[in-house]
Design a protein that fits this description.
Blueprint: H1 13-25, H2 31-44, H3 48-54, H4 60-81, H5 85-88, E1 90-91, E2 94-102, E3 106-113, E4 118-125, H6 133-147, E5 157-163, E6 166-172, E7 176-178, H7 179-186, H8 191-210, E8 213-214, E9 223-226, E10 231-233, E11 240-241, H9 262-265, H10 273-289, H11 298-307, H12 313-316, H13 322-331, H14 343-360, H15 368-419
Antiparallel strand pairs: 1-2, 2-3, 3-4, 4-6, 5-6, 7-9, 8-11, 9-10
Helix pairs in contact: 1-2, 8-10, 8-14, 14-15
């Protein structure tokens, strides 16, 4: 039975080609599968979407989403050809200078805030989402929630507004690089630098958790580093807050698949900071290994986060401190209860690790707070080891008791048989 799938706009070859590009970019099909399917488009005269669904390569629901996405892209391109954002040169009180980035929800421009004579990054909601009430709400939620926050490791938000149909918000412009840039261009990042990045992200997460906010999209591209070495966590496009959680529905998956936590991949609603800790762990793995935890299609990666044991970083890199491997493994455990429960716990672990690495290199922490954190972390680690030893002893004693009871039962049974 043939499933009827609406094709983008028309069944033209060009639009089928664009549809295939989206499917490849979404890691739903391979280039080879695309070539084979396009040959069938020519011979059968069917839309590419219909062929992929009939073959079971793409399910009907995913195909429908791709179709809608392509329609939005085509509509957006038509709008740009008639005069896009940059053609306006100015949005509200902001003069646009140049486009500096793009995400799933909006484009980011370098701009000048005319009233303050300062350089800002202006994020503008994609016109393809402007007619979507849910996305408009999420975009404004991002700006409103971020605007209430103030921390040295978070990108500051200055203003939010709407101008001639464009939704935008202005945020601090960071003159620096992302961790994603460092991974791609610098190759291996020194361990002490990685520890410092993780420590500063943890400081930001600790602050967010105090405000009952889950970031939901921790990844290398959202971690920026200034020229002074200050780490800035940004892009709150997927946050969950206590004042706007009605926007999130049970079963809705939001986030970046390569770094998504198992519970987030399952579409669970009541996430907490432990989900961000897992995503930071996935980011840490990427910094250490140069590769993501899992590869494949989006759905395959998400299943792996839920079910598959992460690769052993110790086998990929033989030079890593054992404590760093242990920390990473705990951050990436599937069950949130087995991870670090708070960013503060993780901060103490990284402070201790930082001391150990510095000791090898002949450097020691100088501040009192660093020393106190190290002492506290060491006490916590010893306490955890003592609890594990105690639990192991209890298991050993229980096993011995059960074994003894089994032996006595066997003797009693044998005696009963002899008496009979």
């Amino acid at each position: 039975m043939t499933t009827s799938i609406p094709n983008p706009a028309t069944s033209s070859f060009d639009e089928d080609f664009r549809y295939g590009q989206l499917a490849i970019e979404g890691r739903l099909i391979t280039p080879d599968q695309f070539d084979v399917a396009m040959d069938k488009v020519k011979s059968l005269g069917k839309p590419l979407a219909e062929i992929l669904v009939d073959e079971g390569t793409v399910d009907a629901q995913t195909s429908d989403r791709l179709t809608k996405a392509l329609k939005r892209i085509l509509r957006d391109e038509r709008a740009k050809s008639e005069g896009g954002v940059l053609m306006k040169k100015q949005i509200g009180g902001y003069k646009l200078v140049r486009r500096i980035g793009e995400g799933g929800m909006g484009e980011v421009y370098l701009a000048e805030q005319l009233s303050m004579h300062r350089t800002v990054a202006l994020k503008i909601l994609h016109s393809k989402w402007a007619d979507d009430e849910e996305f408009r709400k999420r975009f404004l939620l991002e700006a409103r929630a971020a605007g209430k926050l103030s921390h040295q490791n978070l990108i500051s938000v200055y203003d939010v507004g709407k101008y001639q149909g464009y939704y935008y918000f202005a945020m601090e412009f960071i003159d620096g690089v992302t961790v994603d840039d460092m991974i791609r261009h610098d190759g291996v990042i020194p361990i002490e630098k990685i520890i410092d990045i993780c420590l500063q992200v943890c400081e930001a997460l600790e602050y967010l958790s105090q405000h009952n906010i889950v970031h939901r999209d921790i990844k290398p591209a959202n971690v920026m580093i200034t020229k002074d070495g200050v780490v800035k966590l940004g892009d709150f496009g997927f946050i969950q807050s206590v004042w706007d959680n009605e926007l999130l529905q049970e079963g809705t998956t939001i986030g970046t698949p390569d770094y998504i936590s198992p519970e987030q991949a399952r579409g669970e609603r009541n996430l907490d900071v432990r989900s961000d800790i897992y995503s930071l762990g996935a980011t840490l793995f990427h910094m250490l290994s140069g590769q993501t935890l899992f590869t494949g299609s989006c759905s395959a990666v998400m299943r792996n986060h839920i079910e598959t044991v992460p690769p052993d970083i110790g086998k990929l890199r033989k030079d890593l401190p054992k404590d760093l491997i242990r920390i990473l493994q705990r951050m990436l455990t599937k069950d949130p209860i087995d991870r670090y429960q708070t960013p503060d716990e993780l901060i103490k672990e990284f402070e201790l690790l930082k001391l150990n690495v510095a000791g090898v290199e002949g450097q020691l922490p100088s501040s009192r707070s660093q020393i106190m954190n190290v002492i506290s972390a060491e006490k916590a680690r010893i306490g955890q080891l003592e609890r594990e030893i105690a639990n192991e002893r209890q298991r050993t004693i229980l096993f011995a008791v059960l074994a003894g009871m089994g032996w006595l039962a066997a003797v009693a049974l044998l005696t009963l048989c002899l008496v009979r």
